[in-house]
Amino acid sequence: MIQIYSRLKVCDNTGAKIAMCIQVTGGSKRRYGHLGDIIYVTIKDALPNAPVKKGDKGKAVIVRTKKEQRRKDGSYIRFDDNACVLITEQKEPKGTRVFGPVARKEPKGTRVFGPVARELRDRGFTKIISLASEVV
Fold first, then answer.
1. Beta-carbon contacts of residue 125 (< 8 Å; ≥ 6 apart)
2. Fewer CB near the terminus (10 Å): N or C of the chain?
3. 3-class SS at 119?
4. How many other CB atoms are there within 10 angstroms of residue 48's CB atom?
5. What pTM does this model have?
């Protein structure tokens, strides 16, 4: 569960390292974001000489959460960290790589680092799924 002021790891190659959630999309009273939800973020830490700078604002999709999420088959999925991928207004990833596993939803970079969950595919983030090194 991601809420306002939650800090997330940015798992793409846009140059951002840490992002902070400033709004969960889907209504003015919506409090929590889950796998595959789009949120508005501000960049809190970034690499020097990167296209994304500290203080930049934009959209991101949640690809990993520490809080477990129940799947339709009755199993649960959870990750070691909270992570997001920066996306454009057209829901395309900003980067070209995504690091780590993802839950099958979409990025702003061109590569995703780390595992991703299958739920991203249900939300239409197929490009993030294809960029991810591991899909859970």
1. 36, 61, 91, 104, 105, 106, 107
2. N
3. helix
4. 7
5. 0.86
